[in-house]
Known about the structure:
This protein has 368 residues and is mainly α. The protein has 2 domains: 1-241, Rhopdopsin 7-helix transmembrane proteins; 265-367, no CATH class. Helix content is 76%, strand content 0%.
Amino acid sequence: MPEIINLVALVVFVLALCWRLDRIRRGNGGLQALAMTVAIAAMTLAFVVSAKTSAHVLDEYVYVGVSRWLFYALLALGVAALIVVFFFPRAGATRERRAGHEALPLVVALIGLQVALLVTPSSLRTSSLSEWSAKNWGFALFYVIASAYLAYGFGACVHNVRKFYRMAQGYLRFSLALLILGFALLAVASVLQVLAVVGSVSGLVQGVNQLIAVRTLDIVGVVAFLVGISFPMLHSRWTGLAARRRHRRDATALEPLWELVTAAIPEVVLPTESSSPTQRLHREVVEIRDALTQLSPLVPEEFDDVDDEVKVAMLRDAVDAYRDEGGASGPVRPMVPADGAGLDAEAAPLIRLSRCVAVEDASVDSAA
């Protein structure tokens, strides 16, 4: 089970890293974005060095135990970066200043891990954490330092994320709730691991049950964290796909009205530069509204007060008059007001008219 969780985590972090690099490429920079990229990259590399093959190569060609030090060092770096990411700025405290403050405990922890590893016998450096291995004080010190720093980091993340959670809404609130849960479980697991190691070294407490609880909390916490950190990306992707499907459907629905008005005024048709559904819908809306504006002198003033079926009849008469007269003279006016702001609201009333055009065209074809 832990191997499966690690594999899934690695895949998620690799995808998240690619997403972050793409966001940076698009120009969304700043310290927070950089810290998020560092956090994801560090945790991705942590899972890479913890793999059996990678750990074996590192331990054989560098020195015994370096894979374990790298794993916890990268985790610590990732957690420190997350503290910066989720730092809630306030008067007199900026994200840049917090990043500087976090450097000190991180460096102290990394040096402590290296010293503890060096005083640990080589035969124990690659051993799993257990009551027996924790009897060695160097081995125990390594895990106490690592777990204590992670407990501090995850606790700080919980404290910071809670401030954002109070103001968040919608899917972001759900994502932050999962992050709080994940960070809290990981913090508790780290504290329990410290207690288990100290108990094993002192002989006062049997740490078997605590270690089992630590592994369980770690797994649940990692899953909650992964879902929480990935949810905005997944939501954004799903929203984008849904918008493209909707815009493709709306663009198709606009075609009857578009064909009606552009057949009379073909000069409003813009060059096609993109085949995306959103660009296609936007182009059709612009072209239809341009054509309607040019037709407006030929459309009766009561156009906005009648039903859509009557509006379509008025538009057909205006199109015929435009063709017969070779144009339109008189003051122009905006027609078919939008339902609100945004592309979808601009397109909605036009789609209703277009459907009426399609119904009339279909009835004419069936009668013929």
